[in-house]
Design goal:
Layout lengths: L2 E7 L2 E8 L9 E5 L7 H9 L6 E4 L12 H12 L2 H16 L9 E6 L1 H11 L6 E5 L17 E7 L7 H13 L4 E6 L22 H19 L1
Helix pairs in contact: 3-4
Length: about 240
């Protein structure tokens, strides 16, 4: 288990888990933003795996108290409590970034964030609000615009890893995101994987009847694309 770091959004205590790189106290940091299930074992494993790539990892808590859902219905309720107020969502992401910046030894210019599903939307919002974070990676994220970022310039580099058959993201949303990022003058990439559904990186979320299916090839390819991107933006 990593180091518990408490941080706050007004009166809500958020509980991040920090996995410092064992041999490099000044290692770049990658925040990992969870799916709609909350800061679960999948999130912790991804944050811990950053150590193998030469980074410290930080598992972000979007719901407070490290809360996780126990069913799809509960997950949706937890997510919607945050998703219904995009300003609150963005504020919680900035609180997580500030918590990481306050850790001794962290180089503030070498911070990136990756997110999965709901977390993919969260990291896109961080870029949209003009954060100084170096780069974000969205894995099978949702692309809906927040409504409070029109006209913003995006300084953060953006990598979007998307399943072409994701039923939650119509093709027009992909084109819409490309246009949005271009208008915001972002340095962006969108990689679409053919014959690939939602949640393609997550074996636990393998529910084809809900449009979610693990795809080992897309999982491997997207992880490699992420590694190349992170190497470029934070070293």
């Amino acid at each position: 288990m990593g180091k518990v770091i408490d941080y706050f959004d007004d009166d809500t205590r958020l509980e991040g888990i920090f996995f410092p790189h064992e041999s490099n106290a000044n290692a770049p940091v990658v925040l990992v933003v969870p799916t709609y299930a909350g800061r679960d074992q999948f999130t912790l494993d991804k944050a811990k795996s950053m150590n193998n790539l030469g980074y410290s990892g930080f598992a972000v808590d979007m719901y407070g108290e490290g809360k996780t859902g126990s069913s799809p219905e509960e997950n949706i309720e937890l997510m919607n409590n945050v998703l219904s107020d995009r300003s609150k969502l963005q504020k919680r992401m900035l609180s997580a970034i500030d918590a990481v910046k306050s850790e001794a030894g962290v180089d503030n210019s070498k911070i990136a964030s990756i997110g999965f599903c709901f977390g993919g939307l969260c990291v896109l919002d961080v870029a949209r609000i003009g954060s100084d974070i170096a780069g974000v990676v969205s894995f099978h994220g949702i692309f809906n615009k927040p409504g409070n970022t029109d006209g913003n310039i995006i300084n953060t580099k953006v990598l979007v890893l998307h399943g072409n058959d994701d039923p939650m993201v119509p093709h027009e949303d992909v084109n819409g995101l490309a246009n949005e990022l271009t208008e915001s003058k972002a340095d962006w990439q969108i990689h679409a994987y053919g014959s690939t559904s939602h949640a393609f990186t997550n074996k636990e979320a393998n529910s084809p009847e809900m449009g979610m299916a693990y795809n080992p090839d897309a999982d491997r390819r997207s992880w490699k694309a992420m590694q190349d991107f992170l190497k470029e933006v934070i070293g």
